[in-house]
Amino acid sequence: MAMARAKHGLFLLLHSRRFFSLDYPLCRSPNTLSPSYLTAAARGFCSDGISDLRDRILRLSENPASVSTASADKEAVRSAVSALADELLALPDGQDPAVSLGSGSFDALLRLPPAGFASVELLSRLKSRPLLALQVFNWRKRQADAEIPMLPEEYYKAITLASRTKNVDLAAELFSQAIADGIREVCLYNALMSTYMNNGLTKKAIWVFEVLKQDAECKPTIVSYNILLSVFGRSMLVEHIETTLQAINDSELSYTITTYNTAIAAYLTAWMWDKMEGMYQSMLEGPVKPDAGTLLLMLRGYAYSNNLEKMEKTYDQVKETVNNRQWPLIYAMICAYTKSSHPDRVKRVEALMKLIPDDDYKPWVTVLLIKMYAQESMIEAMEGLISKAFQRHIIVTTAGIMRSIISNYFRNNAVDRLAGFIRQAEYAGWRLFRSLYHCKMVMYGQQNRLEEMLGVLDEMENFRFSRTRKTFLIMYKAYYNTGRRPEAATVIGMMWKHGYGNDEDAFVL
C-alpha cells in the first residue's frame, strides 16, 4: 500500500506541467548541465547559518513565482518519500532495505527536481532508526553518478546519523569519503566537530576546527564557532571561551542566539555569575534578543546562585514552559528556596512540589525538605518525610541535616519523638554522633526522667560513644536542678576519676 502511494505520487509529478518548467534546468539532458551549476545545486542543500537564510529570502523576493513552484514540487516529493519511509520503517531490524529501494520508485524520486532532494528527505524521515538510515545512505552512494551526484547534505546527515549510533570512526570515515568525492563544505566539518563533542572527544573536536581554519576552500561560520564554544563550555575551559568570543568579534561574523545561549550555558556551568549576567545584559541591549531557551538558562543560573529576586521574575516569564515537565528547573528552584531565608519559602516550595509527579522521586530533594521543615520547626511535616526516607532506604550521612532534626525536636520539647527517631536512625544506618544522645539526655533531665537519662549512657556504649566532660556536665545539671545534690556530687567525682575534673569542679563540691 505504501509503495502504491509512492508510485501514485510519482505519476502525478511526471505528468505535471510544472515538472517540465524551464525554471528547473536539472530536468534537461545531463549533457547540457555545466559543472558549475551542479556544484551550485549541491551547495544549496548544505544550509549552515544566517547567511543561507538571507540568501533564500533574497531569492524569494527576486523570483517569488519560481520559489512557489519549487515549494509545491518539493511538497509532492515529500509526500512520495513519506510513503517509502513508512515501508522502510516497517522492516524488521537487520533486514536489507535494498529490495524496497531497488524497486525503481526511489531512483525515479532521486531524479525529480531538485535532483537528490528525495534522498535528503528520506534520511531525515529515517532518523529514528539511524542504522537503517545509514543502510539507505550506502545504497544511495552506490547509485550516485554524474547526473545525480552525492550532495553535501546527504553526507552531513550520514555523519550525524553515525554520531547518534556512537560510531565515531564511521563518522570520520564518511567525512573522508566526502572529501575524496570532492565535496568540501563547512557543514561537514561542523557535523564531525559535533560528533566528537557529543562523544566527549574534546581534543579531536578542536582539531577538526583547526583543520577547517586551514582549508583554503572553506572557512569557519558562526555555527562552527558556536560548536567550539559548546566544546569549551562542557569542559569549563573559560579562557578558551573568552578567546573564541574575541575571535568572533574580530571576524565579519555576528553573534546568533545560539552563540549567546552557548556562552551563557558555559558561564553557568563554571558558576561565573557575573559573566553570565553580562552576556545576558548584552543581549537585552543588542539586536539579538533572548528567546525561551535563554530565559530557561538564566532561570537555572539564578536558582544555582540563590538570586531569588531575579529567579522569580524570570520564572514569571517562562512559567508555562517550566511547569510543563521541566522537572530539573523546578528542582533547581526548590533547592534555591530551601537554602534561603525567604519568609514564604515553605509555601513556594510546596507549590512547586505539586508540579512534580509522584513517580519522579529524588532522595536529595527529600533530604533538603527534611532540613527545611526542621529549621521551620514543622515537626509533623518533617517526620512525614523522614518516614518516607526510611521506607525508601535513604541513608543520611550529613551532620548538618541530623543537627537540624534534633534541634527541631529540642525546640518542640519532643523527647519521646526524638527517642523514636534515634532508634529508627540506628537501624537504618543513618549517621550517628554523640550530640544525638546528649540532646536526649538534656531533654530527659529537663523533664525529671532521670532513670531514662541514665539509660542513654548504655545506648552510647552500644555504639561506642565514650563519655565526655559534656556528658557528665549534663548529668550533673540534671541532678542539681532537681535537688538531688548527693548524686550531683557523685557525678563530679566521676569526672575527676575520668580526668575531666578541674578547680571549678572542686569549688562546686
UniProtKB/TrEMBL annotation:
PPR repeat placement: 256-290
Name of a matching Pfam family: PPR
Keywords: Repeat
Stored PROSITE patterns: PPR (PS51375)
InterPro entries the record matches: PPR5-like, PPR_rpt, TPR-like_helical_dom_sf
Residue runs in coiled coils: none
Transmembrane segments: none
Record-stated family: Belongs to the PPR family. P subfamily.
Protein name as it appears in the record: (wild Malaysian banana) hypothetical protein
Organism in which the protein naturally occurs: Musa acuminata subsp. malaccensis (Wild banana)
